[in-house]
Amino acid sequence: MTKKPTIALDAMGGDHGPDVTVPAALDSLERNPDLSVILVGDESELKKRLPADGRFAGRLSIHHASERVEMDDSPAKVLRNKKDSSMRVALNLVRDGVADACVSAGNTGALMALARFVLKTLPGIDRPAIISAVPSRHGHTHMLDLGANVDCTAENLYQFAVMGYELVRALENLDRPRVGLLNIGEEEIKGNEQVKQAYKLLEDSYLNFIGYVEGDDIYLEEVDIVVADGFVGNISLKTSEGLAKMIGEALKQSFGRNLFTKLAGLAAMPVLSAFKKRFDPRQYNGASFVGLRGIVVKSHGNADRVALANAIRMAVIEVEKGVPMLIGQRIESIFADSQGDESKRKSA
Amino acid sequence: MTKKPTIALDAMGGDHGPDVTVPAALDSLERNPDLSVILVGDESELKKRLPADGRFAGRLSIHHASERVEMDDSPAKVLRNKKDSSMRVALNLVRDGVADACVSAGNTGALMALARFVLKTLPGIDRPAIISAVPSRHGHTHMLDLGANVDCTAENLYQFAVMGYELVRALENLDRPRVGLLNIGEEEIKGNEQVKQAYKLLEDSYLNFIGYVEGDDIYLEEVDIVVADGFVGNISLKTSEGLAKMIGEALKQSFGRNLFTKLAGLAAMPVLSAFKKRFDPRQYNGASFVGLRGIVVKSHGNADRVALANAIRMAVIEVEKGVPMLIGQRIESIFADSQGDESKRKSA
């Protein structure tokens, strides 16, 4: 029997706050009869959005928090002040075992800073990382780190790979997901020092390491997890978001130009809709923070109820599979004794 | 009167060699009556592809070279051996003033290594960089470095910005192109040390610096030049190539699924063609090597005649505008006396 999951939802987070978080919670409860949700935030604001018929009564509750983290609040400020923010209180509930996971569409920097402070990292983990999936030619590709760690050592990159591997095994039910290390192919001596050293660590590890991958491989190659430092990973992801947005806009414009193109668009509509659906970013909403003693899933700030419900669904799977425990065990078995113990690495 | 340009074309370079290089040269000569082209490579192979009617006689010549650089040759090996490769001989012609620019679709690493060795960097330039344009919401964006320099100091990034600025002014006839520094927005203390220091240098410079840009801004923001180190720039560009390719394939597949979708595709064809044309990568073929004492334009290895002709056209503009001289003068005026001289930087 898998655990019945309870999600602490930062109900004030994101661009739309309770207007999106509450409907997304209700949708999620509707779909998953095992789920419980704790809405964390301003009680009066939340109460008036709850269903009048009292359905989900036993599975939906409100936990009051008097403050909210704004999108432009600095993480340091949030950490020092705003001790009763919905974001922080949601994390407290996870720490205290009241909830199994926290989902927030709030400020990423603040969420990461609070999560590290409140939940702490797993033993042996130097730095938590952010991982998310993008659609790819063969299905989708998970990428980490997406911005939590700007400068990374080879050992950090190795830990990211391990964390990504354990998460993706759980999320995707894959036995041996393929891990690639993001690099460039143009230079004689490829990559920087950290990447070259990380290559060696990964090559000697228990992971299903397929070697270096380049930027285009994220979308074209059969790779399940792409590992990079947070600077590179973030820029690669954001580049993709920008390009996809521009192409989407241009496609729309092309069909909207005049009567003729509008008619053509009408004819092509069903095909274009299916195409759009395949790449719908809402499907991919939800970036997991890995390496913490608890489950935290970050939703896009501008997520709608469909997108946010996907982030909640992701958190639920992580609860059911016990992802932090899987990562913790693995990291312990690899790094516990000695960071240089090759035989351990291989047999871990 | 602008200079009549002579291009040394590495006629053996690229995936298709003379089958593409010769037709592209002929197209270019057809279009530009001021242009001369020297085809560098195997004389017998090239000769048989020349027009039988002897047109372009005074403007088209063959310069024999007995070797060719393969796509997987290591730059070090090419540098040591293959002294009579078409790539190297084409660069020699530029060095010796016989040609004004070299265009090659060959191995990027080898071309950069040879170009540095044969042509040398401009005085004051630490490292040459690779710059190219991508389509964007508002037109297009030039990005550098795209892979020549993996680890970069703040000063390197500053020099890239100056080189990109002078090139883009010339290529685009822009008075004050906007320069952005690629960074991430998620972290409390944004970016790594080099980026933060480069920010200060750029802020105090004569450049039209608009500050940090994120990955999505490459496509969505009004920025003309995006500066990054070669690792990040390459991965961002390759990520874009992979995503664009995947989307193109998926769109094609969507319309090819069955009779109905094919009919829809037929109706949408003119619109989709116009859309495709706008983002045709062949338009954007041609990456300039900047910071050298000569003009070198790298074409995609798999370029067809249309794409390669675009790379030649780019080289021609750089010749006409005297881009290396513009960059050299600027770098000299900024960096000649002291690298820390703020007043010079501002008034340069």
UniProtKB/TrEMBL annotation, chains A, B:
<dbReference type="GO" id="GO:0008654">
    <property type="term" value="P:phospholipid biosynthetic process"/>
</dbReference>
<dbReference type="GO" id="GO:0006633">
    <property type="term" value="P:fatty acid biosynthetic process"/>
</dbReference>
<protein>
    <recommendedName>
        <fullName>Phosphate acyltransferase</fullName>
        <ecNumber>2.3.1.274</ecNumber>
    </recommendedName>
</protein>
<comment type="function">
    <text>Catalyzes the reversible formation of acyl-phosphate (acyl-PO(4)) from acyl-[acyl-carrier-protein] (acyl-ACP). This enzyme utilizes acyl-ACP as fatty acyl donor, but not acyl-CoA.</text>
</comment>
<comment type="similarity">
    <text>Belongs to the PlsX family.</text>
</comment>
<keyword id="KW-0808">Transferase</keyword>
<comment type="subunit">
    <text>Homodimer. Probably interacts with PlsY.</text>
</comment>
<keyword id="KW-0012">Acyltransferase</keyword>
<comment type="pathway">
    <text>Lipid metabolism; phospholipid metabolism.</text>
</comment>
<keyword id="KW-0594">Phospholipid biosynthesis</keyword>
<dbReference type="Pfam" id="PF02504">
    <property type="entry name" value="FA_synthesis"/>
</dbReference>
<dbReference type="InterPro" id="IPR003664">
    <property type="entry name" value="FA_synthesis"/>
</dbReference>
<keyword id="KW-0963">Cytoplasm</keyword>
<dbReference type="InterPro" id="IPR012281">
    <property type="entry name" value="Phospholipid_synth_PlsX-like"/>
</dbReference>
<keyword id="KW-0444">Lipid biosynthesis</keyword>
<keyword id="KW-1208">Phospholipid metabolism</keyword>
<keyword id="KW-0443">Lipid metabolism</keyword>
<dbReference type="GO" id="GO:0005737">
    <property type="term" value="C:cytoplasm"/>
</dbReference>
<dbReference type="GO" id="GO:0043811">
    <property type="term" value="F:phosphate:acyl-[acyl carrier protein] acyltransferase activity"/>
</dbReference>
